[in-house]
Amino acid sequence: MIPTSQAIPEIPVHRTRNSKLQSTDFNALEFGKYTSDHMLSAEYKNGQWGSIEIIPYQNISLAPDALCFHYGQTVFEGMKAFRQDDGNISVFRIKKHYQRLLRTLERMCMPAVPESLFADGMCRLVETDAAWVPGKEGCSLYIRPFMIATEARFGVKISSEYRYIVFTGPVPTLYAKPLRVKVETHYVRAAHGGTGYAKCGGNYGAAYYPTYLAKEDGYDAVLWTDSLKNEFIEESGTMNVLFMINGTLITPPVSDSILDGVTRDSILRIAEHMGIPVEERPISYRELEQAAKDHTLQEAFGAGTAAVIAPIRSIGILGIDYTLPDYTENNFMFRAKRFLNDIRRGNAEDIFHWNTIISM
Ligand SMILES: *Cc1c(COP(=O)(O)O)cnc(C)c1O
């Protein structure tokens, strides 16, 4: 076990001489299209972390038999940094993301990343590429820490070598057109005892095919159900899912098959702060169907770092589409999103202590 408190020496910064900044159109950002100038890189070998440095964003070279290409030891996080009005930068909920990364790494038999490598390394990187943090309302700097098994060995084994990399890129608000989702009652994303709670690459690969089939049927995404009965709602692929039924905010409890989303948690805390009743409990698609029929289903939405909030327009249940009422800016989901953004951009007091401020 690697102590998570391993001290990290001052991280050297090797700056690029070919900045991509001038050739990046910040008025036409697309999610996932642009990467910033630098990346943080660290290597794990012989039981310890070393070669920790910030270097120009570049390709990495690995042997074809590097274990990450074959047996799935690849994990990641997804976070954001925001420009505040005074020019400073806030990074959102570093601690919560770090704790989740540790749980993911443990599940995948990968060594812990020391807390200072995660937190200080990330802040140093964001500081190095501060010019890449968009100032425009709704835009932000996406941060992608990830770790892969790098030992060159083609037999199935737990890798003894790893690379931890963090890169970033400016992103716009994903204007989420209200989604048509389908309750999936055949395929499962994650089973009890599996890796659903871990942010590992394999969970996504397994979700592609059922999602592709749902898209062929005209849906935007699937609402996964539990692996035992295919009845209880889990989440929606890259987002957790929340429902407003009769004035109560309801969401499935996190479990070993549901990812513990930081956005989900933030929305729940904000709801409680607003005095809205919150229930974290199993919710079956039959209950959703009944609530839709009774017109007590007021809101349904996804919550995740990329889109923040993704309104759901209709839910397909066993071949029948149930349409949600039209949304207005007054709906809880949009009020919560504004509250969250105000905290992150420094326009509201950071009452939950979610921001790490990088002074510029
Ligand atoms: C990352 C992720 C989410 C959302 O988590 P956030 O921390 O809010 O970004 C939800 N579901 C899955 C499967 C994820 O990988």
Radius of gyration: 21 Å
Q: Give the DSSP E fraction (strand runs of 2 or more residues).
A: 25-35%
Helix content: 10-25%
Write down how many β-strands occur, each being a DSSP E stretch of 2 or more residues.
16
Number of helices: 7
Q: Give the mean pLDDT.
A: 96
Low-confidence stretches: none
Structural class: alpha+beta
User: Main sheet, how many strands, which sense, barrel?
Assistant: 8 strands, antiparallel
Overall spatial form: globular
> Ligands in the structure?
pyridoxal-5'-phosphate
Terminal Cα separation, in Å?
A: 37 Å
Sequence of secondary-structure elements:
EEHEEEHHEEEHEEEHEHEEEHE
Task: Please specify the SSE layout and strand pairing.
Elements: E1 38-45, E2 48-56, H1 68-71, E3 74-76, E4 79-83, E5 89-92, H2 94-107, H3 115-128, E6 140-149, E7 162-171, E8 179-183, H4 201-216, E9 221-223, E10 240-245, E11 248-251, H5 262-273, E12 278-280, H6 285-294, E13 297-304, E14 308-317, E15 320-323, H7 332-344, E16 355-358
Parallel strand pairs: 8-9, 8-14, 11-12
Antiparallel strand pairs: 1-2, 1-7, 3-6, 4-5, 4-6, 5-16, 6-7, 10-11, 10-13, 13-14, 14-15
Helix pairs in contact: 5-7
The structure holds pyridoxal-5'-phosphate (PLP).
